[in-house]
């Protein structure tokens, strides 16, 4: 029976991965810009420059000028170089242009995320992977943004912390934590939050009396801080700026700040479709919101008499608690940075790592329901139905319809 469950889960996981990839590719083809933004253009420009041997430079204006001269080229410091470097490597290996290499790279990271879901819950991996079907995650993995690998890095961080608590190959896990922290920083500067997560874990183990493990984790956190400091110093040496110029100027009034951030945060509760003020919500948005509320309410209703089922032994709920911990620390650190610096208001892009980990945590509680739970199959069916509707509604519907009509005689 267990082997049959694993086979079903694997088949469902593979089918879901293919479906998500199909949605992402169709969205990319249908969109005039190929789901790129100014940030994406600079990532792709650096990737192309690296491929052609120009070096770590990008243009200092947008749209990117056709003619590039030393006067309009600057050292790439506004973002870390990790994501463009990976695009370059993918382009070299696949022989695709950097645009399509970036899309293939995102699908590879998506696939690694699905495989990690299988490691986390082999019998219910497809249920966890439904978290990738939300509007937020579909958009993140469609755009050429570093949030795609960053989200995978956050999930891997949680997984490694869980494995460390299980006492499995502690030395190997510690090395992987160092590599994961480095990876997160090289994808986005905000990845330094992971250094704090590792330091917090070191404090936890020290308090528990595991001093040797605590000191090793503290050493990892300090080495990561040293690595980040060295990276910023290199930036400063080449440009006179640690991270691409003054990021502290032009802060908005406090009431405007809270209003903008609140809108972005509330919007993340809408899983299938977002609503962007000040335009009123349309009928489809209201219908989808009602559907999401109905599915959520049905799941809560089916669990109404089984609250203890969600709280098994403490070890079983370690993973979702770690998800919430890492998501919370990321959110607090992001909000702190937003208070200091007037970058974009919090939206689905910036909030995606925290939102994704929170979704996975909630789904994991459903995964650990016992097989003999009387509503187990119904609950899983409701989750899958919500994910399926989200996938269908986030398809480029007009593009797909036009292609179907072209195929008809």
Give a brief description.
The chain has 16 helices and two strands.
**What is the N-to-C order of secondary-structure elements (H for helix, E for strand)?**
HHEEHHHHHHHHHHHHHH
Which segments are poorly predicted (pLDDT under 50) over 5 or more consecutive residues? none
The description of the largest β-sheet is: 2 strands, antiparallel
**Shape, please?**
globular
Q: What assembly state would you assign to the polypeptide chains in this entry?
A: single chain
Binned strand content: under 5%
Strand order of the largest sheet: 1-2
Please give the number of β-strands: 2
Distance between the termini: 47 Å
Helix content: 55-70%
Mean pLDDT: 93
Number of helices: 16
Computed Rg: 22 Å
The computed structural class is: mainly alpha
């Amino acid at each position: 029976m267990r082997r049959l469950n694993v086979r079903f889960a694997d088949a469902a996981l593979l089918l879901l991965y293919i479906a998500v990839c199909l949605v992402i590719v169709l969205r990319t083809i249908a969109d005039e810009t190929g789901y790129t933004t100014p940030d994406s253009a600079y990532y792709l420009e650096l990737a192309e420059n690296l491929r052609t041997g120009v070096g770590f430079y990008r243009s200092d204006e947008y749209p990117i000028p056709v003619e590039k001269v030393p006067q309009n080229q600057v050292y790439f410091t506004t973002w870390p170089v990790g994501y463009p470097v990976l695009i370059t490597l993918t382009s070299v290996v696949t022989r695709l242009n950097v645009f399509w290499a970036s899309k293939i790279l995102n699908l590879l990271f998506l696939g690694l995320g699905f495989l990690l879901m299988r490691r986390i819950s082999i019998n219910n991996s497809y249920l966890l992977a439904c978290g990738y079907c939300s509007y937020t995650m579909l958009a993140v993995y469609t755009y050429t943004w570093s949030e795609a690998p960053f989200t995978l890095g956050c999930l891997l961080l949680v997984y490694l912390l869980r494995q460390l608590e299980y006492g499995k190959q502690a030395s190997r896990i510690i090395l992987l934590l160092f590599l994961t922290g480095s990876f997160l920083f090289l994808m986005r500067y905000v990845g330094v939050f992971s250094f704090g997560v590792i330091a917090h874990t070191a404090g936890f183990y020290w308090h528990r009396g595991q001093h040797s493990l605590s000191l090793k984790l503290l050493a990892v956190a300090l080495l990561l801080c040293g690595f980040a400091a060295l990276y910023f110093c290199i930036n400063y040496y080449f440009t006179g700026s640690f991270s691409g110029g003054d990021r502290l100027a032009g802060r908005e009034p406090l009431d405007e700040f809270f209003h903008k951030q609140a809108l972005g945060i509330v919007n993340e509760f809408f899983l299938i479709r977002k609503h962007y003020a000040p335009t009123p919500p349309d009928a489809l948005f209201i219908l989808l919101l009602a559907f999401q509320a109905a599915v959520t309410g049905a799941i809560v209703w089916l669990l109404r008499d089984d609250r203890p089922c969600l709280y098994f032994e403490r070890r079983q709920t370690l993973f979702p608690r770690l998800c919430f911990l890492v998501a919370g620390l990321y959110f607090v650190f992001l909000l702190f940075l937003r208070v200091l610096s007037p970058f974009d208001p919090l939206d689905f892009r910036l909030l995606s790592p925290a939102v994704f980990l929170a979704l996975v945590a909630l789904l994991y509680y459903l995964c650990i329901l016992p097989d003999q739970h009387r509503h187990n199959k119904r609950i899983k069916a409701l989750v899958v139905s919500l994910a399926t509707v989200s996938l269908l509604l986030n398809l480029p519907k007009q593009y797909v319809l036009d292609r179907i009509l072209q195929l008809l005689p």
